[in-house]
Amino acid sequence: MAAAAAASSAAAGAADGVDTNLYSRQIGVYGMETMGKLIAMKVLIVGLKGVGIETAKNLTLAGPQSVTLYDPTVTEAADLGCNYYLEASHVGKVRRDEASAARVKELNSYVRVSALEPENGKDLSTADLAKFDLVVFCDEGPAGFVRPRSELEAFNEFCRTQATPIGFIVASVRGVSGMAFLDFGDAHVVFDSNGEQNRVATISNISNGPVTKVMTEDTKRHGFEDGDFVVFRDVEGMDKLNDGEPRKICNVTAHGFDIEEDSSSYGEFVVCSATVEQTKVPHPVAFASYADRRLNPVPADDPMGCLITADYSKFGRPMQLHVAYAAVDDFAASNGGRLPKPHDEADAAAVVEAAKALCAAAHASGADTQLPKPEDVEADVVAMVAKRAVYELQSLAAFFGGVVAQEVVKFTGKYSPLRQFFYLDAFETIAEEGHDLAAKDVSEFAVSGTRYDHVVGLFGSRYAEHLQSRKVFLVGSGALGCEFLKNFAMMGLGCGADGRVTVTDMDNIEVSNLNRQFLFRPEDVGKAKSVCAAAAAKAMNPDLKVEALEVPVGPDTESTFDDAFWSGLDLVTNALDNVKARLYVDGICVFYRKPLIESGTLGTKANTQVVAPFITESYGDSQDPEEDSIPMCTLKNFPHAIEHCIEWARDMFQGAFTDSVQEAAAFRDAPEEWVKKTLEEPNAFTRRQKLEGVVNAIDLAGRADWRTCVEEARKLFHTHYYTNICQLLHNFPKDYVNKETGVPFWSGHKRAPQPLEFSIDEPEHLGFVAHTAALIADNFGIAVPSNWSDIEALRELTASMPQPAFVPKAVVIKSGEDDDAVEGGDDDDKVAVEAADKLRSIAASKAAELAALKLAAADFEKDDDTNHHIDFIAAASNLRASNYRIPTVPRHRVKIIAGKIIPAIATTTCAVTGLVGIEILKTFRVPKIEAFRNTFLNLAINMYAMSEPMPPKKTVSKEYDPVTMGPLRAQPEGFTPWDRIEIDGSEAMTVAELRDNIAASQKVDIDILSVTVNGETKMMYAPLFAPSHRARETRPVVDVCREMGMDLPEKRRYVMMDVACSDSDGDVAVPRIMFKF
């Protein structure tokens, strides 16, 4: 049934060949135009070790026309540690590509997935490449061997010289470093370089002259940059600027910019509601070949003048990695395709010499080169790559698999492609010599033909065993959680006899999850995420010791996640999508002093944060500012952005189809009580709205048929888009001038609206009526006819419906947020009383009919494309936009905003969880803070910013503290949130004994002892403020806490307290108190 439901929902959401339900979050990132190009793309992926399978998975989820795989190597045991679609039964029997294709095709039924059989029957040739739009070469072949670079260069030359160039990408992970290279030909066109929504600003003034100077309102930065193109709208007095032509801006300031255009003859700017909007202008980008970039990897026009540097503490490292990779290629070319033997000093030395020889030859040739001089080659970097080149760090494979799949999407012209090399290393994951987990000798790196060969070969057998015995808690099993479970299974985390991975998530699987939560399948829809994800991960590695729970993590479930649970963990990984839950888990990890790794995504952007006990600050120590809310006046009467219109439509949905029907149901069930309570509402306008709404709902429910529903929908259109707009213009005519300032009322952000008269010839008008009528029918249990959306049927029904002329009313409307007038009409009280009387009359005379009324309030659901909810909001918001001359938006954009959907794509999720995996490997060897990295990335613009985490915030002594308004002494000096004072007591210890214990140990006087009860801080002992607290001094602390309402489970043997204290010199700050009993 679940699979059938998924198929039905998918069919309902299909538009222009794109399943808008399945791809809803992705469409929110890419847009429909890019999706239209993507579903026509044919891609070949060569090599199916770690990077290759990650790229194939991410790309198949994205939805191109076809993904073809090629890697004829028969599966080896070590492959099971990097390609999660290979199984033990495939080892020595089944080709990597055939085994992988069978599983990859399960990810997306819209994508044709197959294994390639070469045209020549032997190996890949240009005849094979010619069938595709883009080819990706990843690590392939038997362990320890690579395809010669010369072949890749020849394939690249073929691809780039076709009439329509074939996109060409190379990606590889060698040990604890990785790379990607991209070539889209000589004239690739980028249509949208960053994927951001176009910024819009309100114009305050335009100065004429040889150079046109534009000023925007100073209440908000416009956000434009030098070189942006903009389009002007609704400029009065300078009509020439409204021609729709993109204009390049320069000399940008926070609230202004220039245009190098002579506007002397354009006329004088008139204060109005003019806007200027950023626009994207297509531009070509030229690439060089793989061969040409060998000696000069940085394009001449690169604004930074260097290879992408993700970690500026390693400035220059990418160029050293470029040389190292080239040297390994040269070594392989001289050794029959063989990579350097692992941890072999002689081979590593040979690669170092090859690196120096490459650089020496480049500089001796007389040609331009960006390579370092031979003496500047960093031998330790080259050796690190060489000694581990045969192995793959799975976390880096996940990262580059996300990056590369995103680069494939960029072939559509969306976003900025890599120019052209990208290198990243994770050398810090290798334990330093002398550390307990560092390999003592080379014998520890000996592999034995198992799925853990990559981990053992990179870190040694003892560290591999250490990973397997860890106990990890994964909070959430959505998109991030699925990727984490896969990564854990591949790296062996929690896969030993003593290991454990506990995952919890209380959500069930929905159709829209299938596009990026890759462990789920259509038949899983409706089932528990955690259970399905855990089962899928265990299938990838049967050794994984995973327990799936469906319990939320929070104060209400501390009996499940108790002291024993948290104390027994080695690591917590968050995969959450809300700040409240993150803060709770963060606080718990600080309390139990457990490492936590945070991550989150937003479209092509993502971030990671390491929280290490006593080493870094916690997640709660720094938070993003809250989003700005839309002022009520803007929402009700003065919108100037589509977001305002969508929020207004969402409120309209809530009021018309949810709140009013719920109120009607409450009246039906208890008529007199409801009327009496409503008449006590202090605001007359609100009182009137509620009573009139219920009168209308009861009336409709009692007589409704489909025609009545259409009639009511038609009335709603007339009220909201004609009558109310006419009333607003009656109160504030278009020529209205602010009497205090002399400025036209309709200027700046206030856009003068225009009433819309209903027309049977306008499809948008009829669409609104159709979806509104269907919602009304659902409210009152009326069957919606099969031809509900038929244009001709709607025209016939609505053609004869009256459109009353506007009659002005005496209504107060606020002129702005600063206006303290009380809105409403002068007859609100009278109408409210009349409505109440009518309802009482209905209750008295039609009690039986009233009790029998069917009333079903709508429960907003964004992901059901058959329920009319998003369709109504899209129609309502775009009509509102038309009222105010605001550009309309497509349905999927409305869905993202109205549903508060976080745009999400598999590529970003995969990449960021790979980075988290790298930090996990560092966590278990308790490194210095310098080894950790927090990361912010944006795949759209190739921005990778890694930084050392901030240390924990310290409490220090101050001569003057603004809170205490005097001197403050920290005891001990520089304590952090990770610190606490532990008091060993007993159930019998009294408040006075506890007070004296703290006072003696800290050499302070105790002023206040506070505890937290149900999230609220309460004073347990504060005799200066509450003399009655003296009576508590002789009572046991535990009894007083319970009396105050604190829940103390039997297994919890402590109470956390905050203390305010002082000494003879002033106030003293101390860590929190843990009173143990």
TrEMBL record:
This is E1 ubiquitin-activating enzyme. Its EC number is 6.2.1.45. PANTHER family: UBIQUITIN-ACTIVATING ENZYME E1 (PTHR10953), UBIQUITIN-ACTIVATING ENZYME E1 C-TERMINAL DOMAIN-CONTAINING PROTEIN (PTHR10953:SF4). It catalyses: ATP + ubiquitin + [E1 ubiquitin-activating enzyme]-L-cysteine = AMP + diphosphate + S-ubiquitinyl-[E1 ubiquitin-activating enzyme]-L-cysteine. Residues 932-1073 form the Ubiquitin-activating enzyme E1 C-terminal domain. It comes from Cafeteria roenbergensis. GO terms for molecular function: ATP binding; SUMO activating enzyme activity; ubiquitin activating enzyme activity. Keywords: ATP-binding, Ligase, Nucleotide-binding, Ubl conjugation pathway. Pathway: Protein modification; protein ubiquitination. One of its GO terms (cellular component) is cytoplasm. The active site is at residue 633. GO terms for biological process: protein sumoylation. Signal peptide: none annotated. Belongs to the ubiquitin-activating E1 family.
